[in-house]
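Slack export, channel: ligand-projects

TW: morning all. Re-posting the request from yesterday since it got buried. We need the structure predicted with the small molecule present, not the apo form. The ligand is adenosine-5'-diphosphate; the SMILES is in the block with the sequence. No rush, but it would help planning for next week.
GE: picking it up
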Amino acid sequence: MRDSVFFLGKGGVGKTTLSSALALALARHGKRVLVASLDPAHNLGDSLKVKLDGEPKNVEKNLDALEVNLAWWVDKYLEESREQLKLNYSYNMTLNLDSFFGILKYSPGTEEYAVLWAIEDIHSRLAPSYDFVVFDTPPTALSLRFLSMPTISGLWVAELTKLRERILKDRQTIVRLDPDSPVAKGTVDKSDDKVYGKLGSIRTRLAALEVLFSKHSFMNIVVNPDQLSMYEALRIKDELERLGIPLSALCLNKHGVSEAAYELPAELHHLPKFTYSFSRDGIFTRDDLVSIGIEPLMNHILSERKTTR
Ligand SMILES: Nc1ncnc2c1ncn2[C@@H]1O[C@H](COP(=O)(O)OP(=O)(O)O)[C@@H](O)[C@H]1O
Ligand SMILES: [Mg+2]
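GE: finished. pasting the full token output, ligand included:
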């Protein structure tokens, strides 16, 4: 069942607005909905007029919302990695793990891993209580990085698994030739090798996220009537295509905001298109959000929901 929804696009195009509006409309339609912000600079709570934190808060009937605490997830990821390394390398006291982790905190990849494991947590722990989970996404660069993580890390883990298999095979050969070799004290068999087991569990988790993004999600691109947001949409489309993640719809938001001419790129013409007018009076209340005209997109999602691609 496809039950996760993402809005992607350039900063300011209306991702938070449309995420909130869709979540509200689905809830008012009788679906149980969780809307979760993955943006490190959260403003989902501002949009819904409720104070949010990392756990679901009730917004109104059928609708809960949360803002992922990214700093907490970064610390949790680092702490788990530290424990794991200490466990595996406890014999090697020359390795100064603490200074290594100080660097890791700021190394590329840490933030997207944190987002990824937060999504996994929402998907496995919270999603079963809801009909839909709507994700309010961070700026494009971070979104594309966390969406590509399962595929890229999956390749790494597959290579590391092969390497581990070779190490274990070599150990077996050594033990066969010399049963008294110190190698015999360590693990030689896949089934009781902790490293091999750990690689397997990471692979399973990454594969589940890959399936979530590519098969069980609605990926909507949001653009405004301006050329820059269209260029960004094209980059998102290309990247998702490379990852095998299909797009569900194109949302043209703030229609009529300016008289300037713009052209919808031909590469996006095939997508179902939903248009939202620029509201000159502003969007202040939850009713304002719903009256942006989100129903056609909601109906599209409801009718497509049972199709798993
Ligand atoms: N259709 C619209 N009409 C009027 N204002 C809009 C519309 N869509 C979004 N906005 C306003 O544009 C600003 C940016 O929207 P937001 O949803 O926060 O964008 P994003 O999440 O993509 O950065 C907000 O002030 C929001 O109220
Ligand atoms: Mg936003």
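GE: first-pass observations. The pocket of magnesium ion (ligand 2) is lined by residues 15-16, 39, 43, 136 (CB under 6 Å). The chain has a mean pLDDT of 92.
TW: perfect, thank you
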